[in-house]
Amino acid sequence: MLIDSHCHLDLVENTTPDVLIDTAKSHGVSHFLSVSIDFEHLPHLLTISEQFDEVFASVGIHPNTTCETEATVEELVSFADHPKVIAIGETGLDYYRSEGDLTWQHERFRTHIEAAKQTQKPLIVHTREAKADTLQTLKSENARDVSGIMHCFVEDWETAKKAMDMNFYISFSGIVTFKNAKVLHEVAKKMPLDYMLVETDSPYLAPVPYRGKTNQPAYVKYVAESIAKLRGDSVETIATATTDNFARLFNVNVQ
C-alpha cells in the first residue's frame, strides 16, 4: 500500500473527501496527510481528519498565504494539540511567488520551526527558488531536532543531501513523472530508500498521464511507478519503503 504524504483534501473541487478516499483506496493508497495552508480552511481540514481514520492533518500557514495578522507560536501549538494533527506546516520560503521585502516570510518560517520544536512534531517544508536560505534557516533554527519533509522536492542532489544531513525526508510529487525533470530524475535514482516519501500535492501538479488536470490522491501510484522505473526497483519496494518511512517519521500506525 502507498501513503500520500502531502495532499489538500479540503481544496479538491467538484468532489467530496469520501469519494477521493475511496478512489485512492482502489488504487492502493491507504493513508493521507492533508496539509494546512491557512487558518481559514483549517476547521474543515480537521473535520475531514476526524471523519476518516485514514486521514491525518497538519497545521500551518503557507509561505505565500496573505494574512492580516501573523500566526503566533502559541496559536500553532494550540491547534497542533488536536489528536489527528501530526505535523507543522506547510511552511518555508518561496521567492518565486512572493516579491519585495520578505522579512515577514522568514519570520513566519521561524515561528513554525519553533512551534514544531515545542510540539515535537515534524515540519513540512515548502521551498521554491530559495533553497540556500531555506537550508540555512533550518540549520540555524536547529530544525534537525524535529526532522520533517522537504515537500514536492524539485532541487538537485546536493540540496537533497544537505536536507537529509539534517534528518529531513525527500518527498517526490508528480513532477518526477515529467520527461523534462532530468535533475529530479537523478535525485530519485540516487536517493536512499529510507529517506524517500511520495505525494500528490493534490489538487495541484497532476502526474503523467493526467498532467494539466486536477490531481487527486489516487494518482500517487503514478509517482511511485515512475520512481520505481527510474531506479529499476519494483513498485512494491517503493511502496513498502515510503510507507515505513512515513510511519517512522510521524510515529503513527498505518497498518
Describe this structure in words.
The model has no long low-confidence stretch (mean pLDDT 97). The chain has one domain: TIM Barrel (Alpha-Beta Barrel), CATH 3.20.20.140. With 255 residues, the protein is an alpha/beta fold. The protein is built from 9 helices and 8 strands. Helix 3 packs across helix 4. Strands 1-2-3-4-5-6-7-8 form an 8-stranded parallel β-sheet.
Largest beta-sheet characterization: 8 strands, parallel
- Count of separate structural domains: 1
By CATH reckoning, the class would read Alpha Beta
Which structural category fits the helices and strands?
alpha/beta
Oligomer: single chain
Q: SSE order, as H and E? A: EHEHEHEHEHEHEHEHH
> Termini, distance in Å?
9 Å
Beta-strand percentage range? 15-25%
The poorly predicted ranges are: none
What is the CATH T-level topology? Answer: TIM Barrel
Tell me, what's the shape?
A: globular
Averaging pLDDT over every residue, what do you get? 97
**Helix content class:** 25-40%
Total of DSSP H or I helical runs spanning 4+ residues: 9
Radius of gyration: 17 Å
CATH homologous group name: Metal-dependent hydrolases
With strands numbered from the N-terminus, the spatial order across the biggest sheet is 1-2-3-4-5-6-7-8
Task: Using the 3D structure, state the CATH architecture.
Answer: Alpha-Beta Barrel
Beta strands, count:
8
